[in-house]
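[Meeting: bench + compute handoff]

Bench side (C.D.) handed over the final construct sequence. Compute side (W.E.) agreed to return the predicted structure before the next meeting so the bench team could plan truncations. Sequence as handed over:
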Amino acid sequence: MKLYVTPGSPYARMARIVVLEKGLDKRVEVVLAQTRKADSPYYGINPSGRVPYLVRDDGVGMEESAVICAYLDELDGAPMFRMEGWEARRLEALARSLTDGLAVWGREITRAKAEQSPGLVAHEAARMRRMTDLWEREVAHALMRGALNLPQIMLACGLGLEARNPTLDWRSGHPRLAQWFDALAARPSLAATAPPRA
């Protein structure tokens, strides 16, 4: 199998973490994809150009981090990350909302200065402040403190985007969230997939 990723994508990082946690690194080849580049050969593999993208052993491609993580988790018949119930879904959706906004912000500031939208950056910075205020409370939830799961992975991958965005300061005023993140970020699978600094 081949897993196409980019080093800075929080969604690709999720899949890479699951590969490591499940011990699939010998079975899944991680391939760096060239995205956001005209005529990239990657578009011949995945027409949408998004990452992560998993090409299974049967040649069929799969897109969307949640789908890929679930597939990888169940490959050995002993899923570690499957979670049932509305609380798990609710927390994963909240983590995705924060991550989505941080990813949009991060992509915007990599554009040429003349092409950047200050309004979009301000919108995503305001969303980040609201969401991290919420997560300062939600991080105490039992599902965020127990065995590693997809809501935890999603949140950690989003917060980890601080490495890519020098203007992103989610830590101020959020000591519980910062402590939670720093403890999880030390886990070998998260440390090995940390995004490169901008």
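W.E. noted at the follow-up: The first strand starts at residue 2 and ends at 5. C.D. will use this when planning the next construct.
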